[in-house]
Write a structure and sequence with these properties.
five-stranded mixed sheet; 2 helices; 25% helix; globular
Length: 99
């Protein structure tokens, strides 16, 4: 089981980026996004290695992405099924959805 103190890092370029947790050498969890408009990102993938699923890593990635979106006024288009499910569970995030 991974150490719960792993930091979520944000990597970004002109077209998109990802949030990543380096779990151990050769293993990382990530949430990837594309920039699809002015202050709009599309979340297209969330993945955690099978042996680390259920450990809360994916939720930590989403939580960081949500915190960043709230801080910067970014709107979100969730395409990834995990992020879609998280938006259903958290109606308080509805103001972050892109129209």
């Amino acid at each position: 089981m991974p150490d719960q103190n792993y930091a979520v890092e944000r990597e970004e370029n002109d077209v998109g980026g990802r949030y990543v947790v380096h779990i151990e050498p050769g293993a990382e969890g990530e949430l990837t996004f594309r920039k699809t408009g002015a202050n709009v990102i599309t979340i297209d993938h969330t993945g955690v290695p099978r042996e680390f699923r259920g450990s809360g890593i994916a939720q930590r990635l989403v939580d960081r992405m949500i915190a960043d979106a709230e801080a910067t006024g970014t709107k979100i288009v969730p395409l990834c099924s995990y992020v879609v499910a998280q938006f259903r569970r958290h109606p308080e995030w509805s103001d972050l959805l892109a129209e």
